[in-house]
Amino acid sequence: IISLSKDLFTLRERLHFIARVKYDMYIREIKIQLEYKFSNISGVKCIIKRLTDIVLAATLLLLLSPLLLIIAFAIHIDSSGPVFYNSYRAGRGYRIFKFYKFRTMKVGAERMVMSYSHMNTYFKNKQSIFFKLENDPRVTRIGTFLRNTSLDELPQLINVLKGDMSLVGNRPLPLYEASTLTTDEWAERFIAPAGITGLWQIRKRGKDEMSVEERIHLDIAYARHNNLMMDFWIMVQTPRVLLQSNNC
User: Residue 160 and residue 115: Cα distance in Å, rounded?
Assistant: First the structure.
């Protein structure tokens, strides 16, 4: 609200401010239009990344098919229930897709979350975005082995072939976790593609001191700076962290 009773100098300064804001908005709109028009230039990296994902995922599925059959049989005889665990996750741009893993928990484990919320390794000040238990009592015997060796993640190669995920990216989140990360402070992590492995896995996986904030900041760092060389470096480092002693 501008009062004409004010001096003309104040009125002139306000008008100049409005003009600068409108000019900045115009320049920003032109920049966005140019980025959209020439988006195919930056899309070359995406094409190479996608082709790499398809070739490597298909090759790994073919080579590991005997191991996949052995794991499926072991899960079947260890506990009653399906071999695979399917859940809906939020990936790049909050896109929801069906996420595949080998089942490592007892049937109905999702309904036990509230019962074990006090054991959450991310629990702090009675608030938590992520949910994960150390030595989770819901995990089956074969499930403990699969988790400690990360073999339960192998079915996600199917997600990679389908285009839901990439080999390298930020982990897709359960919908109840993704729904808490929609503010400007955290939403940037969803710019990057969802991935089987990523920056936080090779930096912090299995370390007790990892906090929610550290994990999300690593996701944001990947979203800002990822490139093909970084993806290759993460893939090379991933085998080193596949084995972990704690069950989480």
Answer: 34
